[in-house]
Amino acid sequence: PSAHLTVDPNSAVGAIQRRLFGGFVEHLGRHVYDGIYEPGHPSADADGFRTDVIELVKELGVSTIRYPGGNFVSGFRWEDSVGPVAERPRRLDLAWHSTETNEVGLHEFSSWLEKVGSDLMMAVNLGTRGTLEALDLLEYSNVPAGSALAQRRIDNGRTEPFGVQVWCLGNEMDGPWQLGHRNADDYGKLAARTAKGMRQLDPSIELVVCGSSGASMPTFGEWERVVLTHAYDDVDMISCHAYYQEHDGDLDSFLASAVDMDGFIEKVVATADHVKAVRGSDKQINISFDEWNVWYLDRYENVDKVEGIGNWPIAPRLLEDVYSVVDAVVFGNLMISLLKHSDRVASASLAQLVNVIAPIMTEPGGPAWRQTTFFPFAITSRLAQGEALQLKLDVPTHDTKRYGAVPLVDAVATHDAEDGSSAVFLVNRSSTESIDVTVDVSALGDVQVRESHTLNDDDVYAKNTLDAPTRVAPRPNETARVSDGTLTVTLPPVSWTALALS
Ligand code: AHR
Questions:
Q1: Which of 14, 226, 336, 458 could cysteine-pair with 343, CB 3.0–4.6 Å?
Q2: Mutation to probe ligand 1, out of 171, 210, 216 (largest number of atoms < 8 A from CB)
Q3: Which pTM was predicted?
Q4: What ipTM goes with this model?
């Protein structure tokens, strides 16, 4: 089969926010302990952080990092995580049935962020706590000096405020599994009054209200409408969370997962704009897609789950999915979906970063390595600069069980007016056929292919593991060339491709 795409200079979607390439670190499993922090590891620095992991996080190119949860945050008392480490309490984390030692807290995590060059995006606990505790944490974090909590931060060794810019008002409050779960009406009121208070304290912050934990939640759509009806004037973004996996060997539907993400984003935008219309507001609410990934959730439910009143392990192996080539292709397509919606998706966080459904894996005392999903993230984060351009697609379709007829090729282009560079990101969703693609790139000027990367493999389930950490990696795509304003490239079956043009 063949496909023809056109870059239309009038098809700019919007400026690509660096925050689109955010990550997420939750106190969950071996993410923090034995992941980013392992004082006894040969590569650990003086603060106990693994420098091999720091180097990989830098290579990944992660902008903001959401912290400290996730479900964890709904039982979290932030005060436990500051002050002298020896005096910090051990707490039971009900979300993941683990013991939280609080060895790594706000100060330690912030110093790790400085090492990796990323910004903090903080979530407050609106599950088991409320407005007052959120205000306390904001005061501790952002007030320079002169108040009790600012002074406590200074006494704890941090003179300058943390200056946290983006705050999440709880986590997945629509989910019955969430500690302190509420209905949309109750949560919307709580979020609105917490947001008002937080802005009274620091008007410069940006606030994310909880949207749905997934488009298949029974309350999806109505949750967004009700929550935004309460909190529209007080927040800047509404969150989306989505995880995808292959179900029952249905590879074609799995490869089309981005179709679902496209629809999810467009429905949340429609709902936010409906509330805007009803309120007669001029303000636009954007999306923080602050959890997205491939996640084989069934494995957690059926294999890993920790239980027992006397069994609260520290840093157990949880959610340690090992990703295949096909997972990485779907993942690359999810990034294309985010870019295609960069007019309204102002922020996104890959969930998560190390060991826990993560692009980076580690062994205690041993190596750190890149999962297959590392590559599409790192390459897209580096090459997608400037504006996203919607491509006109003339592409064959095929039928899938979950999503009906879907295009076999999905793609987006980016263009940086400052340095004239461009990039095209493409996926081939066919599990059997190579596709010859032509792209009319004449609108991008006189360009040539500067870099090409294709991720595919004869074994679409090939993975990188402790024993074979470099089994899968992208390779240059020798078929990619530009001639007379037309880019030609052959996309192998089940593949993700990035082409840099200049
Ligand atoms: O990322 C893993 C979990 O997924 C998060 O803790 C939660 O917010 C979501 O359900």
A1: 14
A2: 171
A3: 0.98
A4: 0.99
